[in-house]
Amino acid sequence: MTVFAPSPWRAKRAKLTLALAFLALLFCFDRRLAAQLPPQASRAFTQAANAMREGDLNQAGDGFTEVIRLAPSFAEAHFNLGLVREEQGRLADAINSFEKALKLKPRLHGANLFLALAHYKLNHFDQALAAVRKETEAYPKDASAWMWLGVIDLAKGQPEEAAAALDKAAQLEPDNSDILYHRGQAHLLVSKNSYERMFKEDPKSWRVHEVLGQIDSDAERYNDAIAEYLEAIKLAPTQPGLHEELGAVYRRAMKADEADAAFQTELEINPHNAFARYERGVLATERGDGGKGKELIEAAVSERPGLPHADYNLGRAEKLLGNDAPAVAHLERAIASDSDPEIVEQSWYQLGTLYRRLHRMEDSQKALAMFQKLKDESTEASHQALNKLKNRQDPNAAESPPAPERPR
Predict the structure, then answer these.
(1) 42: which of 93, 125, 222, 333 lies 20 to 30 Å off by Cα?
(2) Angle, helices 222-235/242-252, rounded to nearest 10 degrees
(3) pLDDT higher than threshold 70 for residue 255
(4) What percent of the chain lies above the pLDDT cut of 90?
(5) Taking 70 as the threshold, does the pLDDT of residue 170 lie above it?
(6) Cα–Cα distances in angstroms (integers) from residue 45 to residues 48, 70, 188, in the given order
(7) How does pLDDT run across 376-399, given as a tens digit for each residue?
(8) Rg, C-alpha atoms of the chain
(9) Residue 12: how many CB atoms within 10 A of its CB?
(10) Which domains, and CATH codes, for the chain?
């Protein structure tokens, strides 16, 4: 069972988010809800809100307790007291206050969510799930509730259910980094479980070797990946796609001849595999055969438009053939449309040499200057990323999401 404990940085961030959310909620409540209370209770409510703004949890707790004494059926006072107790770490008291608030007002926005959060902190996962599900049912557009449903499902060892909840949260808030992080964790666990079951059910399947090859390739263990793909091919020699995947690993392992042979075999099995044809064209261009490279790349693009870096590679092939003007046109399109910074950088370099051959000296100087600028920027970015990695504290600590904002 995986429990996501916050790293020191994320815990600090969560605490800060919690405190700011308190202030936003109480500011709203002392204006809107105080008017519903008798004068003495209203004054006590405002004083408790002010205490929260000043960070005095003890006085705030005493204030909301007084509001409850004066107006015991006021659900929001019980809820606010629960928020204070949760912030103080008095989780049993917080649970008691949230339950009283919900008894008085079953659909009070946020009460079930923070009741779930208190149970979650105590590892009461069944109670936490029951509470947070009520919140999602009452407020189906609350992304925080769906996120916490997913997080608690993960803690309970239910990745499939977690993935479904976090997918829903991501639909509501697609750019929320906390949701995306936990969604990724859930889907990774779902994939892991699927592979483990596949290995158990059919350990001699070619798909087992394919998956192991993919894992080894992603980990840059290219020799191991090649061995796994070769085993898969022994079991399923005419399976479409296997030779293409093997060729891609050979490419990463800098084994051009083997890669070309694998792509060629793939085309014999599936003549319409545009990717395999395209890769053969790129390999031919890298070997200096512009004619063959151009022919293969153009054929692949004709069958499957939008192949990655096609303009860049066609520009290189045309350059090898001495077709400078078409090469320039392709490389200029690559700069305008390719999203890969390295391809854009290299396109500027190729353009610099082509402009010079076309006696466009000013354009050549500008292109080479742009190439150098991009190269310097990428080098600096690499240094910064390395320094950030070195300075990161406890990089292996699992993270938990920040506490949800208080309902308004």
Answers:
(1) 93
(2) 160
(3) yes
(4) 68
(5) yes
(6) 5, 10, 47
(7) 998 888 777 777 666 654 444 444
(8) 30
(9) 11
(10) 8-178 (1.25.40.10)
Residue 393 is predicted with a pLDDT of 46
pLDDT over 50 at 123, yes or no: yes
* Token duo for residue 246: 């093997």
Say whether pTM exceeds 0.70. no
Assign 6 a pLDDT band (cuts: 50, 70, 90). very low
Please, are residues 24 and 406 in contact by the beta-carbon 8 Å criterion?
yes
Tell me which residue has tokens 């014999």: 268
- Does the structure show a pLDDT above 50 at 236? yes
Instruction: Please report which confidence band the pLDDT of residue 282 belongs to, taking 50, 70 and 90 as the band edges.
Output: very high
> What residues have CB less than 8 Å from 180, skipping those under 6 apart?
170
